[in-house]
């Protein structure tokens, strides 16, 4: 059995929902998965205790959460020694036209942190108009009308492709299993014997 740490930052909860779906897929493969919100990192959290680490962040005003960047910078050496993945949640990833911009955010993150994850996933986010204050709701409606003209701005909208999230999680798990020499068909998760 492999132990995964999924450490994420979330602005309005969509990245947390993505992290939860990733955990579900990993656990279905008989592995352990622990989720930690970067806003609530326990003082005794030790990245070295996990076999693999996934880090997730959302984009707000063109930036990732600073606590996620700091987590990666602080743990960069430990992350470099194990299988890792990064997933990003943004409205940019919700459209084909925005994918280039979304990829640019990842490049900036990698350059800023010096961390090079083994796998990267880009997922569409959500618009939670019902949870925004007046000014933010107005601003987000204007952005949505400009970038996604077909979106109904009178109600909340979710753009996450859950099949894509599950495929990413399965790919990351398979990659880690292969890297650590774990046979996924062995229900006990024991290492392969040749």
TrEMBL record:
Signal peptide: none annotated. Keywords: Plasmid. Pfam families: Flavodoxin_5. InterPro entries: Flavodoxin/NO_synth, Flavodoxin_dom, Flavoprotein-like_sf, Protoporphyrinogen_IX_DH. Residues 4-167 form the Flavodoxin-like domain. The keyword Isomerase does not apply. GO terms for molecular function: FMN binding; menaquinone-dependent protoporphyrinogen oxidase activity. It comes from the Archaea. Coiled coil: none annotated. One of its GO terms (biological process) is heme biosynthetic process. This is Protoporphyrinogen oxidase.
């Amino acid at each position: 059995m492999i132990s995964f740490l999924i450490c994420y930052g979330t602005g309005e909860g969509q990245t947390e929902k993505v992290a939860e779906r990733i955990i579900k897929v990993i656990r279905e493969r008989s592995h352990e998965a622990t989720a930690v919100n970067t806003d609530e990192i326990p003082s005794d959290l030790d990245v070295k205790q996990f076999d693999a680490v996934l880090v997730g962040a959302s984009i707000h005003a063109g930036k990732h959460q600073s606590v996620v960047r700091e987590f990666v910078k602080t743990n960069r050496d430990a992350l470099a020694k194990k299988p890792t993945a990064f997933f990003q949640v943004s409205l940019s990833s919700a459209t084909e036209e925005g994918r280039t911009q979304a990829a640019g955010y990842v490049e900036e993150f990698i350059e800023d942190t010096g961390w090079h994850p083994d796998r990267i996933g880009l997922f569409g986010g959500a618009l939670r108009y019902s949870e925004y204050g007046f000014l933010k709701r107005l601003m987000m409606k204007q952005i949505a009308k400009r970038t996604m003209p077909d979106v109904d701005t009178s109600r909340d909208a979710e753009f996450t492709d859950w099949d894509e999230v599950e495929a990413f999680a399965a790919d990351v798990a398979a990659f880690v299993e292969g890297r650590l020499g774990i046979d996924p068909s062995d229900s006990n998760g024991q290492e392969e014997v040749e």
